[in-house]
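#lab-general

N.A. 3:47 PM
ok so I finally got the sequence cleaned up, no stray characters, all 459 residues accounted for. can someone with queue access submit it? mine expired

B.Y. 3:52 PM
send it over

N.A. 3:53 PM
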Amino acid sequence: MSKNKKIVNYRKPFSLNIGVVIFVIIFIYILFNIFSYFTKTHISVYEVEQGTIAENNTYSGLAIRSESVVYADTSGYVNYYLKDSRKASYNTLVYSIDETGDVAKQIAAASTGQSELSKTNLSEIGEVVDEYTKSYSSDSFYNVYSFKESVDAQIMEAINLDALDSIGDYTAYAQANNTFHLGYATVPGIVAYYTDGYEGVTIDSFEPSMLNELDYTKTNLKMRDKVTAGDPVYKLVTDETWHIVVPVSLEIYERLMDGTAVQIEFMEDGRKMWVNYEERQLSDGYYLILTLNNSMVRYVQERFIEIELLLDKESGLKIPNSSIIEKEFFKVPKEFFAKGEDSSSKGLLVKDSASGNINFIATALYYETDDAYYIDEEEITAGTVLQRPDSNETYTVGETATLKGVYNINKGYAVFKQINILYQNEEYSIVETGTSYGIALYDHIALDGTKVNENDLIN
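B.Y. 4:20 PM
back already:
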């Protein structure tokens, strides 16, 4: 007798089917995210920070001084006994002119043979070296040439004076024969051995064309061995009060209109000081006339002086200009706003044109003036009739105004925030902090405001 065989159906584990399903779900999810990434607008975010924008207010100004040119009374060989930029008192020996050239040769020979300087001379040269050492900067290495000239001039002054003293008998004989002439300062002042044609210019006679440095020519008077009667020999700056004429923009001109003093920095050596100024408008532009009562001797060799106006640097919230947009809003008188029955937020009573019913619509406020709020609601458009809460008076929406602002995205969607720009350059703006409808430190805003609309969801 045969036994019955039991037939068993074999099925694959159900877990394999679940795995396939999970794989398909993940694949679809990945495809969806890839599609969303390439089809949605990508918004870069900028975090608002505290910042400062420093203004670049560097100008080249025209130096105007009380300058008097001294001319030679006779022709001959010239020697100098006072260094450039040295103060000459009344009757200080400045130069000599030798008609025959004999005394000039004796002075040259005596100078060549002199090998020692007095302690006073060495001390003065040491002061020049010490001043240069203290102000030295690798960024202004070109000043080493000015330093060299100062040392050379100091040595020249000492040697020439000593040489003149050593040949006293010879010079006395030449003076007696009226062939050797000594030139003394007739008034006190600072000696300068150059001319440039600007010596007679005043703050009332200067012309804008004088500020063109390309046309400027400076003549070094010490480059000549001989002079002719009537030639300039040196000049004296006779007043410590001097001026710098600076051409400025209309913006700076208006900004300084109510002031009388400004701080400046000399770009040559970093020296800072407060100076008085007056403004002047000419046919071709705007000018500041700076008045200085000291430091004239430091810059007496320069006609054009580079300075920076140290105006206040604007500080506040720093944002990129790309974030800033302009948006139009409806202006609604404040007396037409009311509070909802179950809310403290402000809103408007809108009158239905068909039924005459009055509906309360809560509104977001974007800005305010003394008499109006700025709103932007889909339910309120031009022509919407509003009911005043405490009377039968109505108002038809229509007046608009434009605000500058950015889109705040702190909550995941775009909200316009008004800004007050204090200062702006090509890349960034400094905006006022603490405004009622503005932004705050560390807020997140859209980097490109043109790619965002009000209430857009930001992922």
